[in-house]
Design a protein that fits this description.
Length: 93
């Protein structure tokens, strides 16, 4: 079954990519849309702080490629390689 994603799907997924550490930790599956890896949230062992609108947030670092381009499963978008590939294409990371 072929799935297609609209631009708003991708933008919404991206919004959910910026998770506080606690929120992302609750997710079971995560995906990196830089190297298209799917992994468990507890495999993330590095976090960076990002300053978003004067609010510091912890952002997970991909355990495979070191990129901060991680989506969490709780985003209402099932984590799959198709979504990750669409995200990569759209955001050009
Ligand atoms: Zn990665």
């Amino acid at each position: 079954m072929e799935k297609t994603y609209s631009i708003s799907d991708l933008v919404n997924a991206k919004r959910f990519a910026y998770k506080r550490k606690g929120e992302l930790s609750r997710c079971v599956l995560c995906g990196c849309y830089s190297c298209i890896s799917v992994f468990l949230a507890n495999q993330i062992n590095e976090w960076i702080k990002i300053d978003e609108k004067d609010e510091w947030k912890d952002e997970g670092i991909c355990p495979f490629c070191g990129s901060p381009y991680i989506l969490g499963e709780s985003s209402n978008h099932p984590i799959g390689k198709e979504l990750l590939l669409e995200m990569k294409k759209y955001y050009g990371v």
